[in-house]
Specification:
The complex is a heterodimer. Chain A starts with a helix and ends in a 9-residue tail after the last helix. Chain A has 15 helices and no strands. Helices cover about 70% and strands about 0% of the residues of chain A. Chain A has helices at about 1-20, 25-50, 65-80, 80-90, 95-120, 140-170, 175-200, 215-240, 250-280, 285-290, 300-320, 320-325, 325-345, 345-355, 370-395. By secondary structure, chain A is mainly alpha-helical. Chain A has a single domain (about 1-395), classed as Formate dehydrogenase/DMSO reductase domain (Formate dehydrogenase/DMSO reductase fold). In chain B, helix 3 (about 80-90) crosses helix 4. Chain B has helices spanning about 40-60, 65-70, 80-90, 100-120, 150-160, 215, 245, 290-295, 300-305, 320-330, and strands spanning about 125, 135-140, 170-175, 200-205, 225, 230-235, 255, 270, 285, 310-315, 345-350. Chain B is globular. In chain B, strands 10-2-11 form a three-stranded mixed beta sheet. Helices cover about 30% and strands about 15% of the residues of chain B. Chain B is of the alpha/beta class. In chain B, strand 5 and strand 6 (about 230-235) form a beta hairpin. Chain B has two domains: about 40-120, no CATH class; about 135-350, Alpha-Beta Plaits, CATH 3.30.70.20. The chains are: A mainly alpha, B alpha/beta. Chains A and B meet through helix 6 of A and helix 1, helix 6 and helix 7 of B.
Chain lengths: ~400, ~350
Amino acid sequence: MKTLKVFGSLIKDAVLEVTHGSKVYHIWMAVLTFIMLLGVYNYSIQLEQGLSATGMTDRVSWGLYISNFTFLVGVAAAAVMLVLPAYVLKNIDFKQAVLIGEGLAVSALLMCLAFVVADMGGPARLWHMIPGIGVFNFPNSMLAWDVIVLNGYLFINITIPLYILIMRYQGKTPNPKIYIPGVFLSVFWAVGIHMVTAFLYQGLQARPFWNNALLGPRFLASAFAAGPALIIIVLAIIRKFTEFKIADITIKKISLIVTVAAQINLIMLISELFKEFYAPTHHSISAVYLFFGLEGKTALLPWIWTSISLNVIATVALTFHKVRSNLKILYVLCGMLFIAIWIEKGFGLIVPGFIPGPWGKIAEYTPSFVEIFVTLAIWAMGAFIFTILTKTGIAIEMGKLVYKKK
Amino acid sequence: MDETNKKWYSLNLNRSKKSESCGCEKSAGSCDSDKPKDGYDQIMDVSMSRRAAFTKITAGLLIGAGAVSSSCSVVGSDESKEKSAMEWEEYFKGNYKLMTDEEKDKTINRLVRSYELNTGKKINMSSKDAEENVLFGYAFNISKCQGYMDCVNACVEENNQDRTTQMQYIRIHEMEDGKGFNFEEADDNYYHEVPAKGHFYMGTQCFHCDNPPCVEVCPVKATWKEKDGIVVIDYDWCIGCRYCMAACPYDGRRFNWKTPEVPEEEVNKNQHYLGNRLRKKGVMEKCTFCIQRSREGKNPACVEACPTGSRTFGNLLDPKSNIRWILENKKVFRLKEDLGTEPKFWYYMD
């Protein structure tokens, strides 16, 4: 009963907190709301017309939505790279970053779920998946696994920070015996969500471009580069706009994680390219399409080469300690890496899986405006949720939001 | 289907064969509803009542929603009330594969009645189950096919495919002589007089694999292999995630990107729940070997329409069937056999 009262008071205080802020804050939230409304309008068009409002066809049946979904699962999983050292290795530097990381994981997961729902032909029939009233093809379907692990991960990442924040809110110290097991679980779970998402593609013998043993590990490596890179950028912004203190050393430690993961990712990329192009087989044809185009169809060429160049430049630059230590340059490199991996793991991975089709048909995919606006809106929704979560979290951490006993 | 009973050569991929007695995935007992219920059935009965509870709860919650408000409305006509009540029950019905015979009859009556309310015309919808000792297979004679595409047209008419997007289950690939089976260079969308000189033709469609990857990946079991080997879809259970489409190596599946349209006078009114009944937007569909015909002992529409006799359909378990004669006497092959999908669709040449 008492906990409920505290929780209710926390919600009230949090609503007050997130509705008050600087002018910049209000403009930021207004812009996000506007983009979301635009997305809602476009989604209503899609609901009305069906998925024919998107650029997807029978030939390329997954597009921008599933691409972003795949990428964001990685971002969500990467939060764990900060959770682990902070709680388990007692590395004090990371503690502030963790809160941000968990907030990011929750927002990224909600975006993932939104992208999946946006991609459904019959979103109204999604209750068919709910165990008990629906039918769940478990353990055969990897998509069923994915639904379980994503929702489980969401649950873990909501409960741990919630517990910590509620304790802090009451001025108490959180009991490590309660949350450390949860932290360990979430560490394994994070690897799990990403491997399962990779298996979703990897397990399809119909698509040689995905049916590749390196896909899972490569997902992890690229996630642990892109996720923390985003966290560095977010931390830099938070440092600038709030009084929340984040030490340089925290950012530098995270940049080490980004660097190592980006290096591993690059090695795997080279390994993949070697396999596809040293002794090209019939199965290399999707890679040929992606990197060089087929029969004059070259829609993905500018994207993938932008991605490769950004990736190589950022990874090489990050490797040098001196370059990495300059925070201004670090932010730029993290931004480059983030975009590179978003392209590579988004439509650089999903679209070529369908091209050429099973009988060699080359039909390209261009997202429609409806699709683009819905995608932007889901990103805006993620940013909106993240802002609310971190603003409340920071206020509690700073001791501004405290439970008052009446 | 055990190994000893198998009538064709297949890869030995060390796949542990699931002991499937029928499409309901029960290894023991039977799926007849008149038999005493055990195991799976009991679980499903619970889930049905849960769904019923869910239906009622949600109906209560959404009392303001259109469907409910008009069904409870005093001013609405009886017909519109009946319609919304039916829509409501249709929305909350279960997976066809797990329905009892009574539930199957109910949903079919609703579908027939709602078509009547909408158009004033009667349709005939069957829920006929697979027969004992029947396993359907298909053979395609590459030497005979001339690319007339009569099969494609017959298929569209028989199966009520969307006319506006020209959805077709069958693709006829026009290949150049001397290049072998080169699908990459083949044209599956030609508009010229056939047979074109120096070309041969090959048709593809859903191959009704014995080990179908599309069935494995479906997160809600909306698609499954029937006892007679036909891979079917419950159009009302499909959530439209298109994972099966990505998993099919043969381009056998189609998606309703928009609401399918068939002019009323062109609708084939002889329908089967798992076959050619009218679909809605956002669901998968595909060739069902014309389940509404084949389960009545007829040939699929494509076989009947083919003017060259390149298509043969029949029961693989019947030693006297034409399909068995072809498998035993012709040099048959299947496409992408290395994937281990075991299509029940063979090609051969004279």
